[in-house]
Amino acid sequence: MAKIINGISNKIPNKFFLVSGHSEGMTPLNAFDSALIDAGVGNTNLMRMSSILPPKSKQIKPVKLPLGALIPIAYAGKTSTQVDEVISAGVACAVPQDPRLNGLIMEYSAAGRKYDIDRIVRDMAEEGMRYRGYKIKSIYSVTAEHHVKKTGAAFAAVVLWW
Length: 162
Known about the structure:
Layout lengths: L3 E2 L2 E2 L5 E10 L3 H12 L5 E4 L3 E2 L4 E2 L10 E11 L5 E11 L6 E9 L2 H19 L3 E12 L4 E10 L1
Parallel strand pairs: 3-6, 4-7
Antiparallel strand pairs: 1-2, 3-11, 5-9, 7-11, 8-9, 8-10
C-alpha cells in the first residue's frame, strides 16, 4: 500500500509498456494530439518524467488507460510543417541484469527514417547504462515515422503502470 507524504503518493510503478503513433493535423498541436490518440494515450493527462525505469519493472502489453488519468510517461515527439519531410520519434528502454537496479529510458526525435532513429535511441540507452556501470539484460524500443503532407507529428513513449 502506498504511503501519502505531504499529499504525494510514494507508490512506485512496477510495469511498463511502449506505444507509438503518428498523424496529420490542422496545426502542430492538433497533429501531436492526433498522434497521441493513435498511440492510445490521447485521452489521458501525460505526466512527462525523466528517464528512469523503476527497479523490478516488467514489460506488459499496452493496457486501456482510464479516461483523464494522470499517466507517468517518458516520450519523444516531433512535429513538422515541412511538406514531404519524413519525421520520426523513438524511445528505448534498457533493463539491467540486476533487478534491484533501475533501468533507463532514452527518447529521440528528428527528421529521418524510423530505422535510423531506432538505432540512435538504442545506442543512447546502451551508453547511459554503460555510464552507470550497469550490465544490460534487454533493450526494448519503439519508433513512429510520418511522411508530412501538411502538418504532421510522430510520437513514441514508455508508459509506467502499476
